[in-house]
Amino acid sequence: MDDIELKAKNYTADDIELLSEMEGVRKRPGMYIGSTNGTGLHHLIWEIVDNGVDEASNGYGSNIRVILHKDGSVSVEDEGRGIPVDIHKKTGIPAVQLIFTTLHSGGKFNTKAYNTSAGLHGVGATVTNALSEWIDITIYRDQKIYHLRFEDGGHLVTPLEVLGPTRKHGTLIRFKPDKRIFSTVDFKWDTVYSHLREEAFLLRGIRFTLSDERTKENAELYFENGLAQYVEVLTENKERIGENLHFIDDTSKVKMEISMQWCLKDYGENIYSYANSVRTHDGGTHETGLKLGITKAVNEWAITNNVIKESQKLDGVDIREGLTAVVAVKIPEDILEYEGQTKGKLGTPQATSLVSDFVYDALIHYLAEHKEFAIDLIKKCQASKSARDAARKAKEQARSGKTKKTEAIISDKLASAQSKDYKNNELFIVEGDSAGGSAKTGRDRLHQAILPLRGKPMNTDNVSLERMLQNQEYSTLVQTIGAGIGQDFDIEDAKYGKIIIMTDADTDGAHIQILLLTFFYNYMKPLITHGMVYIACPPLYRVYKKSDPSHKFIYAWDDASLEEAKKKIGPGYGINRYKGLGEMNADQLAATTMNKATRQLMQVKIDDPLIVEKRISDLMGSDVSKRRAWIEQNIVFNEKDAFAEEVKA
C-alpha cells in the first residue's frame, strides 16, 4: 500500500472540519429550513414573522407589517418591545448581535420574556441572517433608534449604532435571500398571503398588513372572531348541520380555542391543530383531547336523553364524520413539548386532559340547550355507522373470496405487484388501455402494479358514499388499495406506498388527474397528508439525431427544455411529439415515468387547507357560477391556443 492510499485510509483529528455556526447553516441549510427551493425560501420570512407574533401573542403590539420589495428583499415590522440591545454579560456583545449570529440564543427558553412562544429552538433569526445576502435590523426602544447590518451570510458590517430619538417601539427587519443558496429567490404573493391569513385566524385581534411593491397589491388580514371565521371559510360551500361551535378558555395555564362545524355531505374528518401558532400537521396530545371530549359528550347526551342505549355507544370515527374543527392551544415554555425536531406533533401530556375536559364541558352544555341540533347530529352519526359497517362487511367478503364480482373486477383490470412488501410497492393509475399495456410491459413486476382506467371517472364532490361505490372505476380502486374509505380508511392497510396518477399531458389528462385527486381528498385524505399520492410527469418531446447511428436522443418536458435539447443534439435533429402515453414504446414509458432512477414525479401535498378546500369546492362543486368566476379571474385565454397555461394559483 503506497503512502497516498495509507493517508486516505487514516482518519485523524486533522480531517475534522470545524465550521462556525453561520458557516454550518450555509453548508447544510436543509437541516434548518427543510429545503433550498421555494418552500425553504419562504421559511426565512416565517422565522422573522414568528418573532413579531411572539411579541403580539404576549400582549406587546397588535400590528405586524410585511412588505415584498422590488429589489427582492422583504421587510417585517412589529410593534413589540424591540429586541434587547444591552450588552450580554457572558459574551460581552450586544444581545441583538448575539441573537442574529448564535444558534439557540434568544428569550424563548424560559417564561421570563415570553409566556408562550412559536419559537422553541432559538435558531430563526440566525438562520435567516446566515442565508441572506444582507440583513438590516432597526430597533425602536428606550426612546432611541438602534441599527446594525450584516452582509454575505452573517458578517457584521455595521456594528450596533444609535441613529437618533424616537417615540416608536418595535423591530424592523429587512433582508435579501442569497441567490447562491436558493434555487429561486422569487417570493410568491399567494404563499405569503396564505401564511399571514392563517396567522391572523389564530391571533384574534392582531392585524397583519401585506404589501407587494412589485405588483402594487395590498391586503389587510384581521379576524376578530379568530377560529370561528377560519372554520366558516373552510365550510362555506358545504351543507352545514347547525351553527359553528366556538369555545374559548383563557383562564387556565394552557389557553385553548376550538371551533367546530359538522357538515351533512362530508364523509371524512378535517381537524387542523396548532400549538403556540405553529401548525401541528401530525396532531398530538391536543388533538387526542379534542377527540376524547367530543366522543364522551355526544354519547353521554344521547344515552341520557334515551336517543341510544348504553350498548349502542357511537364510535369516535362515526361522531367525527363530516366534522371540520380547528383546535389551537397556547402552552407555557416550561411544559411545552414536541415529538421530533419539526414541531409536527405536540407531546405535552397535560394537553390531553385539559382539552378533553374543556371540550366535554362546553359541548355537553351546548347539546343540552340545542336539542334539535343534537338529534340531527346523532342521526348523521348513526348513518355513518351503518355505512361503515356495510363497507367493512364488503371488505371482509372480498378478503375471504366470497365476492366473485369484486374478484372479477380486480383480476380483469389490475396487473398486480408480486411483492408483499407493501410500503415499497407502487400503484400506477393509467389513462387508457393502450398506455396500460405499455406500462404493464415496462414495469418492475416485483414492486409496480398497473390499473388502467376506462374513460373518465365521475366527479365525487358532494356525491354520497353509496353512489360513489356503485361506480365501477372507484369500486375497483377502493378494493385495489385495500385500506377502506372515508372514516373507515386505515392507512396501515394500504397495499401500496405510492399511488401514482399517470395520464396524458393534455387537458383530458389534467381533468382525469383532478377527478382522481378530488376522490382521494374526499375519501382517502390520509394518502395525501402522508405524501403517498404522486403525479407522473411524462415528457412531451423526444429530440433525436437523424443521422446518428448511435441513436442519440434527449427527452424534453416543456418548450424551454425542447429548445435546450435542440441545441445539444445540433443540426439535423428530429422531434417526436407525444400526444399521449399510448404513443410511447414500453421502454420509453418505463425510462421516463416508471424507472425510479430516471423518472420525474410530482408529490401531492396540502400546504394550505383553506386554499385546497375552497379550490375543490369552487371547481368541483355543483355551483357553476363559482367555477365560472374562478376561471374568468385566473385563466388567460387567447385565440391561438384557446387555453393558455397562465394561472395565478
Summarize, please:
This protein has 649 residues and is an alpha+beta fold. It contains 22 helices and 23 strands.
CA(first)-CA(last) distance: 61 Å
Helix content: 25-40%
Which sheet architecture does the biggest sheet show?
A: 8 strands, mixed
Question: What's the architecture of the largest domain in CATH terms?
Answer: 2-Layer Sandwich
Q: DSSP strand (E) fraction?
A: 15-25%
Number of helical segments with 4 or more residues:
22
Strand order of the largest sheet: 5-4-3-6-2-1-7-8
**Overall number of strands:** 23
Structural class: alpha+beta
Low-confidence stretches are 11-19, 107-111, 403-409, 639-649
CATH class of the largest domain: Alpha Beta
Shape category: flat
Superfamily (CATH H level) name of the largest domain = Histidine kinase-like ATPase, C-terminal domain
Average pLDDT reading: 84
What is the count of structural domains?
5
Describe the protein in words.
By secondary structure, the protein is of the alpha+beta class. 38% of the residues lie in helices and 21% in strands. It is built from 22 helices and 23 strands. The model is unreliable at 11-19, 107-111, 403-409 and 639-649 (pLDDT under 50).
